[in-house]
Design brief:
The complex is a heterodimer of chains A (about 240) and B (about 160).
Chain A (H helix, E strand, L loop, with lengths): L4 H20 L15 E6 L8 H10 L8 E8 L8 E3 L17 E8 L7 H5 L5 E3 L5 E3 L9 H5 L6 E2 L6 E2 L5 H4 L6 H5 L5 E5 L7 H7 L2 E2 L11 E4 L7
Chain B lengths: L7 H24 L13 H7 L8 H7 L1 H7 L9 H5 L3 H5 L11 H9 L14 H5 L17 H7 L3
Classes of the chains: A alpha+beta (about 240), B mainly alpha (about 160).
Chain lengths: ~240, ~160
């Protein structure tokens, strides 16, 4: 091959630019999505939840969640009269196939869908020794599974029990708030499948998002507020017995 | 140089230290991913990798683009706010290639019961029935159109069940 000095001088910077783009990695999937424009959360309306398990099944389908592990699950609370501190909680297979029917005139029963709260000050990201889990600039707690060692510190740190170690990948796994969907303008799989609108994806940075009106007019609570995790899963009609 | 005569071993040690530090910098340059620290103490490129995962639920907008007749029917009834894939399941594969992937029609006697089986644990305003007693084993679509479930007068007369 015969390359003149002039050609070489042109080719070298071009090769350098090409190599730089290789090193930079894959670009983001949605070119129109700007992380700085969003701050994601979730609204869960307990008064609308019927415990059908659609969300659990949808999540497992969308995210290939292994059997026996859950990125979202539904609990059924049973509070006997004044025993707020000792509710009976069941969640058969995460509520995936619904719940056994309850006969009439029993005590207080209700369903509580659970999932990652995508905390703004999340304990799970603080304990990661290698920087494999983090809060994205748009407020979603994510895991870099190529970086994760599977030490499970984060599994222990999450006060809501939302993480598990994937039985095949041997790395931590959890709800991504369907990050691959919300960045494409879709809602999460659980919200898409919820028949009663009990779950609503919320963009807290969008002033036109209906969540702002909802928060103003309803008694909304987060789980374990005393832990100051900055949880962004907002529960409407949350009973005091829920932990 | 005689002033440093007895300190030469220290210079050799310092040289070793500098060399080790340079090797550390070179190794670090190659082993730390380019995007580490782009947004914080993590690999910034992993955000893009997660965002690129495949979608399996197409979203109701994708369904409504083609199935306008069903949307029109659905909007007249109580199921107006139930998304298509809440009952029909994840169908992005069908939305991407409608001719190749044909959705399976759900079995209404299983599907409807999942939500509408009576239980005192459900919110009081939610319509609930005891399926065995309500339909005597008939599939729900014998009387109800799942897209707009309220029975109109002729269907009620023909269907029989309460």
């Amino acid at each position: 091959m015969n390359i003149s000095r002039r050609k070489m001088l042109i080719l070298l910077p071009a090769a350098a630019v090409a190599w730089e783009s290789v090193l930079a990695g894959t670009p983001e999937a949605s070119p129109n999505y700007k992380m700085s424009d969003h701050w994601w959360g979730m609204l869960i309306d307990i008064s609308k939840c019927i415990g059908c398990g659609n969300c659990v099944r949808a999540c497992q389908t969308e995210n290939d969640v292994p059997d026996g592990h859950f990125r979202t699950w539904v609990e059924r609370y049973h509070v006997d009269d004044l025993h707020l501190e000792n509710p009976t909680v069941i969640s058969p297979d995460g509520g995936k196939e619904g719940f056994p029917a309850v006969a009439e005139d029993a005590e207080k029963y209700f369903f509580v869908p659970k999932m990652c709260n995508h905390c703004a000050d999340s304990p799970c990201t603080q304990v990661c020794p290698v920087g494999a889990t983090f809060i994205s600039p748009d407020g979603v707690v994510l895991i870099d599974q190529k970086y994760c060692l599977g030490c499970a510190y984060c599994v222990q740190a999450c006060p809501y029990g939302c993480r598990y170690v994937h039985p095949e990948k041997h790395v931590a796994d959890k709800c991504t708030l369907c990050y691959h969907r919300i960045t494409k303008g879709l809602t999460t799989a659980c919200c898409e499948a919820c028949p009663t609108g009990s779950r609503q994806l919320a963009d807290l940075k969008n002033p036109n998002d209906p969540i702002h009106a909802f928060l103003k007019t309803h008694n909304v609570q987060v789980l374990k507020p005393q832990m100051a995790t900055g949880a962004k899963a907002f529960y409407n009609d949350l009973d005091g017995s829920v932990r | 140089m005689s002033a440093f005569k007895d300190a030469r071993h220290l210079f050799r040690f310092a040289g070793l230290f500098v060399l080790a530090f340079l090797i550390f910098l070179v190794v670090r340059h190659y082993y730390v991913p380019k995007s580490f620290g782009q947004y914080g103490h993590y690999r910034g490129a992993s955000i893009g990798e997660i965002a690129q995962l495949q979608v399996k639920f197409a979203g109701h907008q994708a369904c409504e683009d083609c199935h306008t007749d069903v949307v029109a029917k659905k909007n007249t009834g109580k199921h107006a706010h139930v998304n298509c894939e809440a009952c029909h399941g994840a169908l992005a594969s069908h939305a991407n290639d409608p001719s190749a992937v044909k959705p399976v029609l759900p079995d209404t006697s299983v599907l409807c019961a999942r939500c509408h089986t009576a239980s005192a644990a459900k919110p009081k305003g939610f319509p609930q029935v005891d399926p065995a007693e309500h339909s005597q084993g008939l599939p729900c679509e014998t009387c109800h159109n799942p897209h707009s479930p309220a029975m109109d007068a002729p269907a009620a007369a023909a269907g029989g069940a309460k």
